[in-house]
Design a protein that fits this description.
The protein contains eight helices and 14 strands. It is of the alpha/beta class and 248 residues long. The longest helix is centred in the first third of the chain and has 13 residues.
């Protein structure tokens, strides 16, 4: 198989077309849910570190017309595919830069919001034989710290940083955010009710003294399939806070 052969799919219930490579890392629900937590408004500038093929920024632009977004991606082929996805959907406010997340070419305090789904399997875990998948999933223990440090550098005061991480990494993430941020929010993602969360959303506000909180978690599946609350985000394109109000 050609490593750059693509498949065409959809996001947000076919509101957004989305091409990704048939081999290597393939996007799941994580970038969609991450984008749904970002409190961006029209005209604001959002960075996604490690944007891949651009799923999170596409979902954010579909939910918030007029938002501007920049993706940072180290893989040149993925960066090119993200740019193609942005253009195919007519999102002229989105762009992508090919480069290293730990040394981004942006001035301090550039972005209103930043977000990332960093590589999170440690190098001690067995890597995938697929090099692209391995790069997306495996990283040294220092990677999260390097990403957060650089993301905070380019984030404006009072802006938000949003991360989607495996639940075992939340303590490390909070420790990295605490020196510069307040209002740290944790939102567990439960595969099913009564099951431990495998993934968690973490959000914080730079230069804030707001109280920290654990938000009501999101149950993704029940006996009927995708829960109505998860469907409101994954298929209907609502923000996570909007989805809760919609279900009341």
């Amino acid at each position: 198989m050609n490593q750059h052969e693509t498949s065409k799919g959809w996001l947000l219930g076919k509101r957004v077309s989305f091409r990704q490579f048939r081999s290597g890392h393939r996007s799941g629900f994580e970038p969609v849910l991450m984008a749904a937590l970002v409190p961006a408004q029209a005209g604001e500038l959002v960075l996604e570190a490690g944007t891949g093929a651009g799923a999170a920024l596409l979902c954010l632009a579909a939910r918030v017309p007029g938002v501007r977004g920049t993706g940072m991606e180290c893989d040149a082929a993925l960066a090119g595919l993200a740019a193609r996805n942005f253009a195919d959907n007519g999102f002229t406010g989105l762009s992508v830069v090919n480069g290293d997340v730990t040394t981004m070419p942006f001035a301090p305090h550039t972005f209103h919001h930043v977000m990332a789904n960093p590589p999170w399997f440690g190098t001690q875990n067995t890597p995938s034989p697929d090099p692209a998948r391995s790069r997306a999933h495996h990283a040294p223990k220092t990677t999260l710290g390097a990403w957060v440090t650089e993301m905070l550098r380019v984030l404006r005061d009072k802006g938000t940083i949003t991360l989607v991480l495996p639940s075992f990494a939340y303590a490390q993430a909070v420790s990295l955010l605490l020196p510069a941020c307040g209002g740290i929010l944790l939102l567990p993602l439960w595969p099913r009710a009564g099951v431990k969360a495998k993934m968690i959303l973490v959000q914080a506000q730079k230069a804030s003294h707001a109280p920290d909180a654990v938000l009501p978690g999101l149950v993704l599946h029940d006996t009927n399939g995708v829960t109505k609350e998860a469907e409101a985000v994954l298929r209907n394109g609502l923000g996570l806070h909007e989805a809760r109000l919609h279900q009341q």
